[in-house]
Amino acid sequence: MSDRDNNPVDLNLPPVLCIGDFPANANALVQARLAPVTLADIDRDDALRERIGAIVTRSNYDIDIALIERLPSLKIIATSGVGFDRIPVEFARERGIVVANTPDLLNAAVAELTIGLMLALLRQLPRADSFVRSGAWSKGAFALGTSLASKRVGIIGMGRIGKEIARRLAPFDVEIAYYGRTRQALSHESFAHPQALARWSDILIAACPGGSDTRHLVDASVLDALGAQGILVNIARGSVVDEEALVQALERKSIAGAALDVFEHEPLEASALCTFDNVVLSPHIGSATHETRLAMAQLTIDNVVSFFAKGKAITPVVSTNR
Ligand code: NAP
């Protein structure tokens, strides 16, 4: 690509507003290609605000209706991430504003983290690491863990990421089943309700979208069905799991443990979840690798450029509901 292609003026783009921040390598790309302005810029310049044609953001920032209403020339919201539960997609659509996300190219990173979290919990890796570092090893053996082999793994949301998790789990010699609103043409067994899937599963993975439709899909009844030997892995959205019910289930030992990348309130602080030995936590890092975040930023930019050059984003969000 030539320098000319990289120049936002030559690309004939309207001013672009950036909400939130991108990791350093991705930010350099966004700055070079789109030269975005900030909320502070539009707050002090009404003429600039009125000309904003695009928002670029990441999936962990809220784009609220009030902001969209302040931007009369807005044509596209391009989010770096696959989840769009923090964007009022229907409201945008009613105004003719396109929403675009970055599906697929983060499947591998999220699937890798999911399997990493699961193994970290089953084999107690965070505690094993502390055990060695603290010198406790010389005083006795470390507690036994649990094997992944031969377990039944249930996936809530057998979409792009769910399928990648299933594909990467296959060599671990597990049985896989899923729950979703649609029965798909897959060799895996499907269940008509998350409770039924949980009852079947040793390990239950949430990999569906967040938002009102899936809020507390994993509730007390699903955790009860998962049972005292069962573990929960959530890489979907915090809203998918009733966190209070999860804490109660952990306190009562009515499930065996949880591995969580996402939380009802992020960043997670001073939560009861931090007090359990049988819980492994990560700070919403499903897609957080250098390679993946750079590719996501590139597609976010390409969505904006394509929209203004050809009238179409490359990966528009097709629908929020069916
Ligand atoms: P996707 O391809 O759209 O798959 C979503 C799956 O969830 C589909 O199989 C869908 O099946 C199912 N689903 C949707 N609504 C549902 C509902 N109301 N009840 C039950 N199942 C439902 O999306 P994806 O690319 O795999 O991404 C999935 C989610 O992963 C994202 O939306 C995001 O929340 C999360 N994510 C997390 C991270 C992280 O850092 N932890 C990173 C990326 C993505 P049916 O249509 O048949 O129901």
Sum up the structure in keywords.
single chain; 322 residues; alpha/beta; Rossmann fold; 2 domains; seven-stranded parallel β-sheet; four-stranded parallel β-sheet; elongated; disordered N terminus; binds NADP nicotinamide-adenine-dinucleotide phosphate
Overview of the molecule:
The chain is α/β, with parallel strands linked by helices. It has two domains: 119 residues, NAD(P)-binding Rossmann-like Domain (Rossmann fold); 176 residues, Rossmann fold (3-Layer(aba) Sandwich), CATH 3.40.50.720. It contains 13 helices and eleven strands. The two termini are 39 Å apart. The N terminus is likely disordered. Bound molecules: NADP nicotinamide-adenine-dinucleotide phosphate. The site of NADP nicotinamide-adenine-dinucleotide phosphate (NAP) has 29 residues, from helix 9.
Itemize the secondary structure elements and their pairings:
Layout: H1 3-6, E1 16-18, H2 24-34, H3 39-43, H4 46-51, E2 54-58, H5 65-69, E3 76-80, H6 89-94, E4 98-100, H7 107-122, H8 125-133, E5 152-156, H9 160-169, E6 175-179, E7 189-191, H10 194-200, E8 203-206, H11 220-226, E9 231-234, H12 243-252, E10 257-260, E11 279-281, H13 290-310
Parallel strand pairs: 1-2, 2-3, 3-4, 5-6, 5-8, 6-7, 8-9, 9-10, 10-11
Helix pairs in contact: 2-13, 7-9, 10-11
The protein binds NADP nicotinamide-adenine-dinucleotide phosphate (NAP).
